[in-house]
């Protein structure tokens, strides 16, 4: 079958024998394609009006372009059918940029998710305290179990730095600058500044009243992205993630 399937497919189409044509296309679709024959099969499938087979070929070319484009079939097609060559190369480029875009979005979402986790940890540190940091009335010390906030440890270090840093001027020290940004982001997301225990929450709320339109738009966009990242997690994911962190 393997050796005759291509001429058989062509003949079955030419003499309108649908049952034989079906057998041939099925054979090719289910494992009969190789990187050596895929270009020939693609052209034949298009000439024989076999759209599904042609689509499967196209996918294989895009997926395995490097090896397919070094085959004899590709070289022959390149000379005989310039427009097909161009079409296939464009499909590969398109697929590549789609992948890049997907990756970029995923990376971006990760950053917003980290910001959301930092916001949660900041509230937790300022409200409950954690291990060696935060309000002393909660008596949380070293012997306590590790907390459920993935960003807590990193933030604890940052807060500690912030309170001891000599440079401190916003923009002067990158760590302090980061802390200022986190505190401002919190304030932008906080809806109860009067009871809030996070430092500078009310200060930033006051400052917001004099902000420029550009600043307002910038922060609003950031807040909406952080909230979108949080919502994409679903209601149970935070607990699941802390379990995932706890089990090595
Ligand atoms: Zn904690
Ligand atoms: Zn600093
Ligand atoms: Zn607040």
UniProtKB/TrEMBL annotation:
GO MF term (any one): calmodulin binding
Pathway: Protein modification; protein ubiquitination
GO biological process, one term: regulation of DNA-templated transcription
UniProt-listed CDD domains: BACK (cd14733)
A family per Pfam: zf-TAZ
Every TAZ-type domain range: 106-204
PROSITE patterns assigned to the protein according to its UniProt record, in alphabetical order: ZF_TAZ
Top-level division of the source organism's lineage: Eukaryota
Keywords tagged on the record: Metal-binding, Ubl conjugation pathway, Zinc, Zinc-finger
InterPro entries in UniProt: BT1/2/3/4/5, SKP1/BTB/POZ_sf, TAZ_dom_sf, Znf_TAZ
Protein name: TAZ-type domain-containing protein
Highest classification ranks of the organism: Eukaryota, Viridiplantae, Streptophyta, Embryophyta, Tracheophyta
């Amino acid at each position: 079958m393997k050796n005759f399937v291509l001429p058989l497919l062509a003949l079955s189409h030419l003499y309108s024998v649908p049952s034989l044509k079906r057998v041939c296309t099925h054979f090719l679709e289910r494992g009969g394609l190789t990187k050596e024959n895929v270009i020939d099969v693609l052209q034949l499938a298009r000439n024989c009006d076999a759209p599904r087979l042609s689509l499967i070929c196209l996918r294989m070319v895009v997926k395995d372009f490097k090896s397919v484009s070094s085959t004899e079939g590709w070289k022959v097609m390149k000379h005989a059918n310039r427009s097909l060559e161009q079409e296939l190369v464009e499909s590969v480029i398109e697929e590549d940029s789609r992948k890049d875009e997907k990756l970029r979005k995923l990376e971006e979402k990760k950053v917003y998710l980290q910001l959301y986790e930092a916001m949660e940890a900041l509230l937790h540190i300022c409200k409950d305290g954690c291990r060696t940091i935060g309000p002393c009335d909660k008596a949380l010390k070293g012997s306590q179990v590790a907390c459920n906030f993935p960003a807590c440890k990193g933030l604890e270090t940052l807060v500690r730095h912030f309170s001891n840093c000599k440079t401190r001027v916003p923009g002067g020290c990158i760590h302090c600058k980061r802390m200022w940004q986190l505190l401002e982001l919190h304030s932008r997301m906080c809806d109860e500044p009067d009871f809030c225990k996070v430092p500078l929450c009310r200060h930033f709320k006051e400052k917001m009243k004099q902000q420029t339109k550009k600043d307002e738009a910038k922060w609003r966009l950031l807040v909406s992205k952080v909230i979108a990242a949080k919502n994409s997690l679903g209601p149970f994911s935070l607990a699941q993630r802390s379990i995932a962190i706890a089990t090595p």
